[in-house]
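Annotated sample (chain length 250).
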Amino acid sequence: MASDEVQPVTATTSVLRQPSSQLWFGTATILAIGMIAGGYLLGNGLLRAKDAERAVTVRGLAERDVKADLATWTISYSASSTDLSEAQGKVRRDTQSIEAFFKELGFPADALQPTGANVSSYTNDGLTTYTVRQRLALRTEDIARAQKAVARQFDLVGRGVFLEEGSGMAYTFTRLNDIKPEMVAEATKDARASAQQFAEDSGSGVGKIRDATQGYFTIEARDGETGSWGMSDSPFKKVRVVTTVSFSLE
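Output written by the structure step:
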């Protein structure tokens, strides 16, 4: 008797029996989708790269004339003698002369403070010479009075005080933090003006700030180099800052 039993179909058999055209179609579809996605991402990346190139980097400058609000004067003087006590006595009298000088100019007593003293000696042919040095420092916010003191500093020489090299007035502007925000804004505005000129020449427009770097603030003499030996520092200063700003172009 013939057998009517039906043979089961396995998963492997089913796959092997699929037409080759269907397999090719499925593979092609996957490849097409991948190419479309890749092309989109590549195109989007190129657009971003193009946008990134549309920028200009310029520098902006801000300057401001200011007047110092602090004056400091370090006064160094000395006396030499083969007798130590004699040299010390001379320095003591010089100190009294300096104190009287500033008192006559109207400075309070605490405006002048001692900042150091030392004694040195050398021997030549068996004879020892002693040198006593003293330093006093004037610190005041009265700039006008300080300028008068400097103008009359040779009065000290007339009183027998030997002023050593390095005895000079220095003027300082201490309120930099008060003007920093305004000056940074001015420098940024100046940078935008430069960027605007560049954009007009290239047929573009200036957009937002992309990146900015603040330079160092510098405080220098307004009227050139001062403060070297034989010259007096000036209370008139120039504050300067340079910023580097990158703007996007539209």
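Annotation: The longest strand covers residues 127-140.
Annotation: Confidence is low (pLDDT under 50) at residues 1-18, 37-50.
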